[in-house]
């Protein structure tokens, strides 16, 4: 199933609200613009971007003499797609590369590591998974299961080990094995906990230092935020805090199959100017898709 179909099954609430507006909208009047802006805000896009997009569409309608709501549907999808930032390169396939997955508890980090490991392994990459979530024993076991499914080795240490030193060991082993892609799962944490965010910054720094010394040459390290699309506007706060503490390189949105809205992807992309690298559209190993801004916006608008 393509991204468009997968997303069309989710994103229901935003699409229905927009559908109603476009279907019953008829000729556009002042009420249409007010309702459009409200609908975008209600879809989790945030006030700023909703206002900007509505204003731009209003200008376009005036310039091109577009009079009916129906004529504006495609233009809305195109305008929303412009909000997204294109990734400069694909960290998972332009290797060597080490990627740390960060995010709050339950965002889908471990699942995403498993999905990416499987896809990269299938594409012929030598992948190593590292478990820096030493907080929960179950997390280490869960990652083991994903490693087995993906056919990729998992480097782990006992529960309670220092996560930064585990990352050092992961890079040691990856270096010894000549791995070209290292995926490190970190423990979920609240973006509001200063101590846990400091711990994570140390994990990133230690990983970077060790990655510089790889035998085959320095390995670039990237930090990717895994964000549950269903967390609504709180997702924007998470992204801001993680970015402030760690300097993010990109975002992976999960659970887009389940969320009825999805506008948070636009809010994050517009505020942080970060690319959405992939999206999770289910719990199975194959339920990961490349992100395509046009498909996403067409699914959102119901084109
Ligand atoms: N529907 C759906 N469920 C997902 C997706 N990604 C992850 N999940 C589910 O979300 C739940 C949490 O996923 P995990 O991968 O354990 O999340 P985590 O971020 O590693 O969690 P912590 O280790 O607690 O920080 C699991 O039940 C996953 O199956 C997705 O794209 N769609």
Automatic annotation (TrEMBL):
Span of domain SRP54-type proteins GTP-binding: 96-302
GO cellular component terms listed in the entry, alphabetical order: cytoplasm; plasma membrane
UniProt: GTP binding residues: 103-110, 185-189, 254-257
Gene Ontology MF annotations: GTP binding; GTPase activity; signal recognition particle binding
Domain AAA+ ATPase stretches: 95-280
Swiss-Prot/TrEMBL keywords: Cell membrane, Cytoplasm, GTP-binding, Hydrolase, Membrane, Nucleotide-binding, Receptor
Compartment(s) where it occurs, according to its Swiss-Prot or TrEMBL record: Cell membrane; Cytoplasm
Catalytic activity: GTP + H2O = GDP + phosphate + H(+)
TM stretches of this protein: none
EC assignment: 3.6.5.4
Gene3D superfamilies recorded: P-loop containing nucleotide triphosphate hydrolases, Signal recognition particle SRP54, nucleotide-binding domain
Region forming the signal peptide: none
Recorded topology in the membrane: Peripheral membrane protein
Enzyme class, spelled out: hydrolase
Coiled coil: none
BP terms from Gene Ontology: SRP-dependent cotranslational protein targeting to membrane
Domain Signal recognition particle SRP54 helical bundle: 7-84
Subunit structure: Part of the signal recognition particle protein translocation system, which is composed of SRP and FtsY.
Function: Involved in targeting and insertion of nascent membrane proteins into the cytoplasmic membrane. Acts as a receptor for the complex formed by the signal recognition particle (SRP) and the ribosome-nascent chain (RNC).
Record family assignment: Belongs to the GTP-binding SRP family. FtsY subfamily.
Protein name (record): Signal recognition particle receptor FtsY
């Amino acid at each position: 199933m393509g991204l468009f179909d997968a997303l069309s099954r989710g994103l229901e609430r935003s699409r229905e609200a927009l559908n109603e507006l476009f279907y019953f909208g008829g000729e556009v009047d002042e009420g249409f613009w007010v309702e459009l802006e409200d609908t975008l805000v209600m879809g989790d896009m945030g006030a700023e971007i909703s206002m900007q997009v509505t204003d731009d569409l209003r200008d376009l309608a005036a310039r091109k003499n577009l009079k009916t709501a129906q004529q504006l549907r495609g233009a809305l999808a195109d305008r929303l797609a412009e909000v997204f930032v294109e990734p400069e390169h694909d960290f998972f396939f332009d290797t060597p590369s080490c990627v740390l997955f960060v995010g709050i508890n339950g965002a889908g980090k471990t699942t995403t590591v498993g999905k990416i490991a499987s896809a990269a392994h299938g594409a012929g990459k030598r992948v190593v998974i590292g478990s820096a979530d030493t907080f929960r024993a179950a997390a280490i076991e869960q990652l083991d299961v994903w490693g087995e499914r993906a056919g990729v080795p998992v480097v782990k240490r006992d529960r309670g080990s220092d996560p930064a030193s585990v990352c050092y060991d992961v890079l040691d082993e990856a270096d010894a094995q000549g791995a070209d892609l290292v995926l490190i799962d970190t423990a979920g944490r609240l973006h509001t906990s200063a101590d846990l965010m400091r711990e994570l910054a140390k994990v990133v720094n230690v990983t970077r230092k060790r990655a510089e010394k790889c035998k085959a040459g320095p390995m670039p390290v990237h930090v990717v935020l895994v964000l549950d699309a269903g967390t609504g506007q709180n997702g924007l706060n998470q992204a801001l805090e993680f970015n402030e503490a760690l300097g993010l390189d990109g975002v992976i949105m999960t659970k887009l199959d389940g969320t009825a809205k999805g506008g948070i992807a636009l809010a994050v992309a517009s505020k942080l100017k970060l690319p959405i690298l992939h999206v999770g559209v289910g719990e199975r190993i194959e339920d990961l898709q490349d992100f395509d801004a046009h498909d996403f916006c067409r699914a959102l608008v119901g084109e």
